[in-house]
């Protein structure tokens, strides 16, 4: 997942020689004003990030907890996701779903998401409702009702989400199988949505223990962006969050390192609902905090898959017509991430055909000259997307959260855009040769199979 933040994109100036044939030149680098954020930490360990933006009388409030699916207990996948739902239930001083009343009834909105490394809760309201939202976020951090009724009702909701997004979606099982087959020892191998079996096995004491372990002020980051008075914000944060005690017990940390792959692996996953086959290939990436390589890898993925003019789409969908959809992604995480390329086949074609073309396009991009116009176009698309989202208070808050919790530090929200503009053809070649064409892969063949046929299998190659 993901929203991101805001600002206006200044026009790019292309230099051309007078009375000379057109020459491809690099786009002028933009001087982007930094996000002027303020950062402090309360005595109880709560990290607070704030940034003023008086463009509109709105304010975004987000709380990012440093817990994701990688922290799910063994045999209890889906716990972090389950808590995303439980946090909207009742507290000591709020009724269930009262967040909807505090946000939607005043013209705002609220939502939440769970990832591999974090769980975040986010709201946007008119700025005169900031105090209420800060109280409400502190209330559900400190006084959540984790009881049998709330647990069972939300577990049923999460299980229904699994049925809809994984079982009912023809290609849901394919994307849900990527993490389990791509990691061997790291808990990233547990899908964020969990499984019906693991959720059925959960008990109320399990849930209470998870809450006490991870939902604490020293494991959270509060982000406020938009129209507010800084002194008043600090006073309200101290008032509503400052009293919450910091537990004496340490926060469990995932220290497992995913080893480098020593051979290529291949797995087969079958589907009773998919009308056509598909294939996905993954390679391991460095953590998102690796600033030298993480940004060129995003550019590489965009060159392969950003829009209908991208290389994978042009090759697999248009020229060879073996696929109806093709894509690539560089998924940066706190630990080892994944570079993924995939294709959903067209009628009459098999995974091996698409797999061959996926490898060919990746190798070509990793070794052959990249036209300057193509590279500039993709970087401009990525830059524009980031800057457009920073036009809102919610988007500014997301930029800070992503930078602070995933990318290694809040300052990345400012430095990454400058680094993106500096990515060269040589950078793209270097990272692809290091992490993709020069490394071992995991390939997943996704095959339609009638009901009652053999289950998914795997084999090394």
From TrEMBL:
GO terms for molecular function: metal ion binding; metallopeptidase activity. One of its GO terms (biological process) is proteolysis. Residues 48-193 form the Peptidase M16 N-terminal domain. It comes from Rhodanobacter thiooxydans. Belongs to the peptidase M16 family. InterPro entries: Metalloenz_LuxS/M16, Pept_M16_N, Peptidase_M16, Peptidase_M16_C. Keywords: Hydrolase, Metalloprotease, Protease, Signal, Zinc. It comes from the Bacteria. Residues 203-382 form the Peptidase M16 C-terminal domain. This is Peptidase. Transmembrane segments: none annotated. Residues 1-26 form the signal peptide. The keyword Signal applies.
């Amino acid at each position: 997942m993901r929203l991101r933040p805001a600002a206006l994109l200044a026009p790019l100036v292309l230099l051309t020689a007078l009375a000379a044939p057109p020459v491809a030149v690099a786009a002028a680098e933009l001087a982007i004003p930094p996000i002027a954020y303020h950062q402090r930490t309360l005595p109880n360990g709560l990290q607070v990030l704030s940034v003023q933006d008086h463009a509109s009388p709105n304010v975004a409030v987000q709380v990012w907890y440093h817990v994701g699916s990688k922290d799910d207990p063994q045999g209890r996948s889906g716990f972090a996701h389950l808590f995303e739902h439980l946090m909207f239930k009742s507290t000591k001083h709020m009724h269930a779903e009262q967040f909807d009343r505090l946000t939607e009834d005043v013209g705002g909105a609220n939502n939440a998401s769970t990832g591999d490394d974090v769980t975040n809760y986010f709201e946007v309201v008119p700025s005169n409702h900031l105090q209420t939202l800060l109280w409400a976020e502190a209330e559900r951090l400190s006084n959540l009702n984790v009881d049998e009724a709330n647990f069972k009702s939300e577990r049923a909701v999460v299980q229904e989400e699994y049925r809809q997004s994984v079982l009912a979606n023809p290609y849901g099982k394919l994307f849900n199988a990527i993490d389990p087959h791509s990691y061997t020892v790291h808990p990233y191998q547990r899908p964020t949505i969990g499984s019906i079996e693991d959720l059925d096995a959960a008990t109320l004491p399990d849930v209470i223990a998870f809450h006490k372990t991870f939902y604490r002020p020293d494991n959270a980051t509060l982000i406020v962006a938009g129209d507010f008075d800084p002194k008043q914000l600090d006073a309200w944060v101290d008032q509503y969050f400052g009293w919450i005690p910091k537990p004496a017990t340490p926060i469990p940390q995932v220290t497992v390192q995913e080893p480098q792959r020593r051979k290529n692996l291949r797995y087969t996953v079958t589907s009773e609902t998919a009308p056509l086959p598909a294939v996905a290939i993954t390679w391991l990436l460095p953590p998102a905090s690796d600033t030298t390589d993480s940004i060129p890898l995003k550019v590489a993925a965009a060159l392969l898959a950003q829009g209908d003019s991208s290389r994978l789409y042009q090759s697999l969908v248009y020229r060879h017509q073996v696929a109806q959809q093709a894509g690539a992604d560089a998924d940066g995480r706190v630990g080892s991430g994944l570079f993924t390329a995939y294709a959903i086949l067209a009628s009459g074609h098999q995974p091996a055909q698409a797999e061959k073309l996926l490898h060919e396009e990746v190798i070509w991009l990793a070794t052959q000259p990249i036209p300057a116009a193509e590279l500039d176009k993709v970087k401009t698309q990525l830059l524009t997307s980031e800057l457009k989202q920073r036009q809102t208070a919610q988007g500014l808050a997301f930029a800070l959260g992503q930078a602070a919790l995933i990318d290694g530090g809040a300052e990345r929200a400012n430095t990454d855009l400058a680094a993106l503009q500096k990515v060269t053809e040589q950078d793209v070649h270097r990272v692809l040769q290091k992490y993709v064409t020069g490394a071992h892969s995991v390939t997943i063949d996704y095959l339609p199979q009638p009901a009652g046929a053999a289950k998914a299998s795997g084999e090394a190659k």
